[in-house]
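Ticket opened by: R.M.
Priority: normal
Category: complex prediction / small molecule

The reporter submitted a protein together with adenosine-5'-triphosphate and asked that the result be attached to this ticket for the collaborator who will pick it up next week. Submitted input follows.
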Amino acid sequence: MNDTAVEAKGLYKIYKTGGKEVKALNGVSIDVKYGEVVSLLGPNGAGKTTLVKILATLLVPDDGQARVGGYDVLTQGHKVRKIIGYAGQDSERSAYFRLTARENLLFFARAFHGISKEEANKRIEELAIAFGFESKLDSYFIALSGGEKQTFVIIRSLITKPKIVFMDEPSKSLDPVTASRVRKYIKEYAKNFNAALLVTTHNMLEAEEISNKVVMINKGKILFNGTSEEMKSFVARTESIEIHKNNIEEEIKLQIMHVPGIISAVEKDSGISLVCKDAYEVLPSILSILKSNGRRLPISVGSTTLEEAFKVIVGGDKEN
Ligand SMILES: Nc1ncnc2c1ncn2[C@@H]1O[C@H](COP(=O)(O)OP(=O)(O)OP(=O)(O)O)[C@@H](O)[C@H]1O
Ligand SMILES: [Mg+2]
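Result attached by the on-call engineer:
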């Protein structure tokens, strides 16, 4: 069997609303192998949900191809839907309000996947125990809290024991104990069932904990794709340069941001924060720009923490 579960090449998606166009995916390629958890990390609006929805056949890309479990998402969508598990980002509106959690789960397993009642019940109990959801199984969906609805959606995505699972921010609104149970389950599930999971998150520590591979995305483009170890060294081997002055002229800012070696630049109230691999390499060019514009601004150099560097890199990608 081919060991690649999910394979996407050159995906583009443009949303057009109210005369405005948003390039949500700008040439995204990604793959997930069986037995692997891939975390998709990126800030709000990065394109994570768009990508996951295309792979789960809920959205059609404008260009590019994707295969899930060997099936083409565009021409064999019905086959893809049969073999995947999907836990969407919007858990509030995702089930019948007037059925209990258990009834919803049973309905989903039996009507959509033809699983026997006994088998479905057994699986529901198993998953409820794993996530501490036993006492909520017989509550009406409408009466579940936000985090409980989210747990329900995760349980539903796993009920058929799918070999390929997409989870869009599974830990969103979960308390720390439940979030940790979900992370543990995801890791073991991929290992024990040789399943492929693509999980979106904003949380770098979560990505590090659960995944074999981390993909960082921002503004529809992939910034990094590698192991969490590689991500750590990619992100950690950076230094920061702070220019302490607010309202620096646009022209000077642009020149500084385009100095070769600057990975990203973010404007703050207190000035500009630059991330680079080697501050001493880029400083002479920055000083020369300031000098030629007759400016002598206070500058400081430091090393960034992992979390800070990540935030700056994904939040301040200067490419577009
Ligand atoms: N239905 C839509 N119509 C118009 N624009 C959209 C639509 N859905 C998403 N977008 C835009 O596409 C971009 C990508 O959105 P997407 O939901 O994929 O981001 P995300 O990474 O999942 O963000 P979040 O972390 O907030 O969930 C954003 O700029 C968003 O505003
Ligand atoms: Mg999203």
